[in-house]
Design brief:
By secondary structure, the chain is of the alpha+beta class. It has 6 helices and 5 strands. Helices cover 50% and strands 14% of the residues.
C-alpha cells in the first residue's frame, strides 16, 4: 500500500488546525455573547431598580418643582448627592428664623417630602446645618427675635437646621416626624473650592435616605 504524499499529510494537518481554530473562535464567541447577555441583564436590572428608587423619584419631582418656581435663588438641588440646600439668604442675618420668602419656598416642597416619608417606611430625611468660620462676636440671648440663643457657630447651625425641620414637618404625625433628623456641624465642613469664611458656607442641607 502506497503511503500518502507528504503534501497531503501537511494539508490534512493544516485543515485539522484550521478546524480547531474555528471551533475555538466559535466557543469564544458563544462565551462572549453569554457574558454580554449577562451584563445586559445586570444593567437592565439596575436601570429598573433606579426607576423605582424612591430617592430618585423625590429628587426628580423636586427638581421639576424648583425649575418652575422662583425658589431656585433660595433652594438648590444637587441630584448627584440627593441633597437640597437652603442657602444663607433663607435666614435673617445672624438668626435661625426663616424669612417669609424662605417659609413659602419650603412650604411649596413640603408635601413631596411628606409623601417620601409616608410612602417609604424605611426613609429618613437628614437636616444638617453648617456655617462659615467667622467667630460669633457676642452671645445672642433674644430668643424671640433670633429663634434661638447661641454663642458659637455650632449652636447657630443646629438651630437653623431645627427651624428648617419645623417647617418641613408640617402635618406629619409624631412617629413620621422622628425620621426627620437634625444635626449642626458649624464650620467643620466648609464647601469644597471656597474659603471657610465664605458666606456660602452658611447653609442648611436636606438629604434623602432609604435605610
Amino acid at each position: 500500500m502506497k503511503e500518502k504524499p507528504s503534501e497531503w499529510i501537511a494539508i490534512s494537518d493544516l485543515m485539522a488546525g484550521v478546524m480547531a481554530v474555528v471551533m475555538l473562535l466559535l466557543v469564544v464567541a458563544v462565551l462572549q455573547k453569554s457574558v454580554s447577555d449577562l451584563r445586559y441583564q445586570e444593567e437592565l436590572a439596575k436601570a429598573l431598580e433606579k426607576k423605582d428608587d424612591p430617592v430618585l423619584k423625590v429628587t426628580k419631582l423636586l427638581d421639576e418643582m424648583l425649575k418652575s418656581s422662583e425658589s431656585s435663588e433660595l433652594i438648590a438641588l444637587d441630584k448627584y448627592t440627593n441633597r437640597l440646600t437652603l442657602r444663607d439668604g433663607v435666614f435673617e442675618r445672624g438668626s435661625a428664623c426663616l424669612n417669609p420668602e424662605a417659609k413659602a419656598a419650603v412650604n411649596a416642597i413640603q408635601s413631596q417630602l411628606v409623601s417620601f416619608l409616608l410612602d417609604n417606611p424605611k426613609a429618613r430625611i437628614l437636616v444638617e446645618g453648617y456655617s462659615d468660620n467667622i467667630p460669633v462676636g457676642r452671645p445672642v440671648t433674644d430668643y424671640k427675635r433670633f429663634c434661638t440663643v447661641y454663642d458659637d457657630n455650632f449652636t447657630l447651625s443646629a438651630a437653623r437646621a431645627r427651624e428648617a425641620r419645623r417647617e418641613l414637618i408640617g402635618t406629619l404625625d409624631a412617629n413620621a416626624s422622628k425620621r426627620i433628623v437634625v444635626a449642626g456641624y458649624g464650620e467643620s465642613k466648609p464647601l469644597s473650592g471656597i474659603e471657610p469664611s465664605d458666606p456660602r458656607n452658611r447653609r442648611v442641607e436636606v438629604q434623602f435616605l432609604i435605610e
